[in-house]
Amino acid sequence: MGKKEISLLQLDVLREVGTISSARAATALSEILNCKVEISFPEVRLIPLEDLNEVLHNPEEIYFVLDIALERELEGRLFFLLLPEQAKLLGEELLRRKIKEPFLRDELFCSSLKEIANILAGSYMSALFDFVGLTVKYSIPSLGMDMVSALMDFFFIYMAQESEEVILVDTRFKVKDRNLKGFFLFFLSWDSLKKLIEKLGVNNIRR
């Protein structure tokens, strides 16, 4: 079984998980934001790492990046990318106040983003791990801001050692009347991908 086949199976799993987890995450975010929240995962794609530039567009564009490590029975990294102006809107809804630059010096704002990322990632990961019956620990997100060019350098240096492809989960929010969008970038180690296949009980993958 080749890497491409495993990646395609993982993509199918992530599509299924996205449907399950979006309802959980929307309910949890609605409670802490005290307003209606709609979340959808309209697109899940398997793309070569070098094509990620086309998704993120401008190499000088800056994103908030939340980095979550996965451990125990599955190992890997989960990244959540959000444009600063959209992160600002979410933070303002949670904190009930205006957010001013520089964003990373506002500790309450950073904590609010981590809490939101925990809810999104927690809902997604819980759905995945329930689906495959594995015990996985995920870390509290680390938060930073960086340009697309620097992010791509990081992914090629560190993530490409495990996989030349990335699972992109296009995540869309509707908070009150505001439409927001973020990206999950999902990497699993090669051994973890094989373990996922075994847990799913799939021996042959077809296109």
Q: What fold name goes in the CATH topology slot?
A: Chemotaxis protein chec
Distance between the termini: 13 Å
Helix content: 40-55%
User: What does the largest sheet look like?
Assistant: 7 strands, antiparallel
Superfamily at the CATH H level?
CheC-like
Label this structure with key terms:
single chain, 207 residues, alpha+beta, Chemotaxis protein chec, 7-stranded antiparallel sheet, 6 helices, 7 strands, disordered C terminus
Describe how the helices and strands are arranged:
Layout: H1 3-33, E1 37-48, H2 52-56, E2 62-72, E3 76-82, H3 84-95, H4 107-132, E4 136-138, E5 142-147, H5 148-158, E6 165-175, E7 178-188, H6 190-200
Antiparallel strand pairs: 1-6, 2-3, 2-4, 2-5, 3-7, 6-7
Account of the 3D structure:
The two termini are 13 Å apart. α1 crosses α4 and α1 crosses α6 (190-200). Strands 1, 2, 3, 4, 5, 6 and 7 form a seven-stranded antiparallel β-sheet that branches. It is globular, with a radius of gyration of 17 Å. It is an alpha+beta fold and 207 residues long. β6 and β7 (178-188) form a beta hairpin. It has helices at 3-33, 52-56, 84-95, 107-132, 148-158, 190-200, and strands at residues 37-48, 62-72, 76-82, 136-138, 142-147, 165-175, 178-188. It has one domain: CheC-like (Chemotaxis protein chec).
